[in-house]
Amino acid sequence: MAWFLLFLAGLFEIGWAVGLKYTDGFTRLVPTALTVVSMVISVVLLGLAVKTLPMGTAYAVWTGIGTVGTVLLGIWLLGDPANLVRVLCIGLIVAGIAGLKLTA
């Protein structure tokens, strides 16, 4: 269950990171509110997950999920560059997440 909570926390991490782009510097009410709610949910779920998972592993996986998801959505939604080096780096992060999961 802790891994599932951590996965959900990572998804909300993606939500608030991408949401920042749509807040327009926190001047738009609805995107700002949704971003803040995503932040709170993400941290609360991370806090629940670390009750049973090793802190370093949980934090690294949480940020890894957020990083990979945010980069992919940036490419897909916002037109961020998708060159070979970026894709390879995303693969390295995914490999690191998988390695941490397998050793925890």
TrEMBL record:
Q: Which GO terms describe its cellular component?
A: plasma membrane
Identify its membrane topology class: Multi-pass membrane protein
Which keywords accompany this UniProt record? Cell membrane, Membrane, Transmembrane, Transmembrane helix, Transport
Which Gene Ontology molecular function entries are recorded, alphabetically? transmembrane transporter activity
State the source organism's domain of life. Bacteria
Q: What is its main location?
A: membrane
InterPro entries xref list: EmrE-like, Small_drug/metabolite_transptr, Small_multidrug_res
Q: Please provide the Gene Ontology terms (biological process) for this protein.
A: xenobiotic detoxification by transmembrane export across the plasma membrane
Q: Where are the transmembrane segments?
A: 29-50, 57-78, 84-103
Full protein name: Guanidinium exporter
**To which protein family does this belong?**
Belongs to the drug/metabolite transporter (DMT) superfamily. Small multidrug resistance (SMR) (TC 2.A.7.1) family. Gdx/SugE subfamily.
Report whether Transmembrane shows up as a keyword of the record.
yes
Phylogenetic placement of the source organism: Bacteria, Pseudomonadati, Pseudomonadota, Alphaproteobacteria, Hyphomicrobiales
As for subcellular location, the record says:
Cell membrane
NCBIfam families per the UniProt record, alphabetical: PRK11431.1 (NF008512)
Instruction: Tell me the Gene3D superfamilies matching this sequence.
Output: 1.10.3730.20
Record's SUPFAM superfamilies?
Multidrug resistance efflux transporter EmrE (SSF103481)
